Structure formats: structure tokens, C-alpha cells
Amino acid sequence: MFKKILIANRGEIAVRIVRTCRDLGITAVAVYEPGDEGVLHVRLADEAYAVEPPYSYRDPEPMVAIARQAGADAVHPGYGFLSEQVGFTRDCEEAGITVIGPGSACLERTANKIAALEQVRQTGIATTVASTRAFTVDEGDALHAEARHLGYPVIVKAWAGGRGRGTRVVREPERLLEVVRDSAVAAQAVYGDPRVYLETAILPARYIEVLVLADNHGNVVHLGERDCSIQRNKRKVIAEIPAPGLTPAQRVAVRDAAVEVARLFGCRGACAVEFLVDTAGRYYFTELKPRLQVEHPVNEMVTGIDAVREQIRLAADQPLGYSQDDVRINGVSFLCRINAEDPWRDYLPSPGRISAFRAPGGPNVRVDTYAYGGAEVPVHYEPMFAKLSVWGANREEALGRLRRALTEFAISGIDTNLGMLRQIVAEPEFFAGSYDTEFSRRHLVAAAPPIGENLRDLAAVAALAFLARAQAAQPSSPPGFNTGWHRDSRRLPQ
Questions:
Q1: Which domains are assigned to the chain?
Q2: Where are the beta strands (DSSP E) in 24-172?
Q3: pTM of the prediction?
């Protein structure tokens, strides 16, 4: 087992990894940029090193140097940033440092998303249909020709990263080049490569992800499938496991296909195999994410398996130690991403200082976060600063717990999407479990936003000020000045 792990990330996932390292007795090493010195993952870690400008969390060079300086024998990249950079993983491997992830060989095989689709298609598993190559923003004529060939609507994806940042749906030809430009900018910022590719959109559909664990000894298991169809601009908002709306046969088929895909690409550790399920119940492989994903807590809650702990064990060349039959999926779990943004102002980011932070509690309620009263949500990174997960013995119990937890969650100082989440879980379509990827188009955020925590704070301050003025106008005698007669006599009727 590893002695010291460098966590090449920030935010809630860095906090999560630090805690698992400490559970395992492994020294946790944090990194931070200027301005992040006081964040929670730095406070919790055993050691911390600065990433000096002009470098950032996205740059492999300082991470490898810090790992060497700290004497770390492994690096955990979390998700995003360096988690899918082949060059970073290869540099670490050459330095004798293990990257807790799939390894450079698997990353190379999955990096070309178009080629990956073809490889999966050759196994007999149905896939989505994509363009035959990647495009740059100045290939307008070729892009229009490819989109016409695929048929609208099409999805624009980052060639280097696939679904995620920069993913957009184009329904009309006249918007294609505008969307491609926006996607290319996002792809360059996140993945360092502005190229994009096109994919035929399956709409409506259910977006299903299967979490898979694999070791170096030929053992592969899945931890169930989650439905991530509730999305905003192709960014996931809510996850649910098990995925509602699948028949037992569909559920088995999707899980088995995910295990086969993970074997095909030689995955190690945790990966997510993603599918689209159309209205006829047919499923199509769309991507493999060779890393841990944001939504992994729901799989943990229904299986009792710590996915981060398993990542560390498997990267240390330990065998899984259990079979698929040993994995039991019990109950239902939901996860919500809590973002610093204003849904009623076109999701305008809301960075700043959190003045008050009250997380929900109770049995089977979990909050993954780096936030606390006084913490800063930075402007340069993802607006997500917390994840709320709940578990119930059945869907009704889990949904009731989710609603209660969202009601208890109180955050002041910044705008959040909590009000939107409360509205989503109250929608009859969500309650019935019949939602799909078009949910957000059918159920737009209400025109009148709910009263936010900041307004509640203002109302409380105003009420206290009014009370103080009222008491000043009608002063009462201090208790010490009251005689026994005053204290004991019956109050006269008003």
C-alpha cells in the first residue's frame, strides 16, 4: 500500500480523497494556488505545497515536481484537471510515481472518442453515430456538410474530453458555427485542445452511467447504474440509482455491456461507462470516462463500497477481493449538485464569501463539500461547491428524505441553485421517475424565484430592528427593580 499520496486537485473531491487517505493511514499531501491557502482540503491534509504562478492545477509539470519534492509514491488526480491527461500520467509513471487512475495505456485508447465508438461497435454493442473526424472552428463548410449527413439535431463535443464542458445541442443549421465556436473555447480552456466532433442527438433519451471497478488481475465488477438525465446545458444536476424506468432485462443488458466495455479498453480502478436509452428502450454506448465521476457517492450509498478506497487499493495492484455476486445494490439514492449560480439570471455564476452554511443532517444524509461559514467560492473554477446525497430503503423514502434535506439546506452570502432543485424534485414527472434528457426544456425554472437565504437574512435583520425600536418606545422595568408585589400579582385585563 502507498505511504504518501499527492492530491492533484482542489474543492470537494480533494476533501473526499484526503479523508479516505487518513482512514487508510496514508499521508495526504495537498496542493494549492495563491488564494486557496485556507481552503478545507489544505487544512485537513498532512502536508501542503503551493503551485506557484504562472502554473495552475491544470499544469502537469509542477504537480510532478511537487510529488517528487514531497516524496509521494502516488498521485490522485480526482476528476477534471489532470485526470485524463495522458502526458501527465506518462510523466508520473516515468518518474516512478503511480497515478491512481486507469494508466496511460488505457487513457491513450479512450482519448480518441471517435475511434472508441468504432471499437465498441465492433463488439456488437450499439453506439451513437459520430462524425468520422475532429474539426476546427474554421472548417465551416465541412462542419455544415457533416451535420447534414448526420441529421439534426446534433451534439457538439470536445474531441479531447467528450461529453462535459463545451457540449452543446444544435437543433438548427444556422446556429451550428456559433455553437462550435463556444464549444471550442470551452474545450481549449479545459482540455487544452479546441477541436470538436459531432454526434447524432438521441432526443428524448435517458442518460445512464454504470460505475465499474477493475483490477490488474482480470476482475471487473459494476456498482450499478445511475440515471443522470436531469441536466442543464448537458451538465448533470441530479443523479438517481437505480435508474428508474428500465426493465429488469434492460438493466442487466446495460450493466453487462458496461463490464464488457471496461474490459475492452483495459480499465483499472474506477471508470464510468455511459449510455443513452431511447424511448423504445434501445441502449447505445456513447462514452467511457476512465476516471472517478462527480456522482459516485450514490453508488457508494447503495453498495456500501468506498469507491475512492477501491481506487487506491487497485492502483496499488491489490485484487478486488470480491465478485459481482458479492456486490449488493440495496435501496435508492439521489444526488444533487449544489452550485454557486443564479438559475433565474441565466445561471450567472455567484462567487464570493459564504457568510453562513447550514448543511442538512439525519440518518442517510451525506454532504460532500469544501464549504463552511466564511469560505470563499472562487470565480475561476467550477461553481459546484457541494453535493447532497441521500439514501432510502425504497424510492418513496429516498425522495422524501431528499426533499427534507433540500429544505434544511441553508446558505447565505452567495446565490445558489437550491431553489431550482427544490422545484425540480416537486415536479410530478420527477416524482414518477418518468423524466428524460428533455426535462429541462419541458419544465423551465419558474419565473418568480423562491425567497433566497439572503432575503431571509435581510428580513430577519429588519424584524430585529423593528423589535428594538418597539421596545425602546415601550421600556419595561428591569427585573431587579420589580418588587415581589410586581412579580407575583395577577396581570390586569387589557
A1: 4-100 (3.40.50.20), 129-200 (3.30.1490.20), 206-442 (3.30.470.20)
A2: 27-32, 47-50, 74-76, 98-99, 154-158, 168-170
A3: 0.89
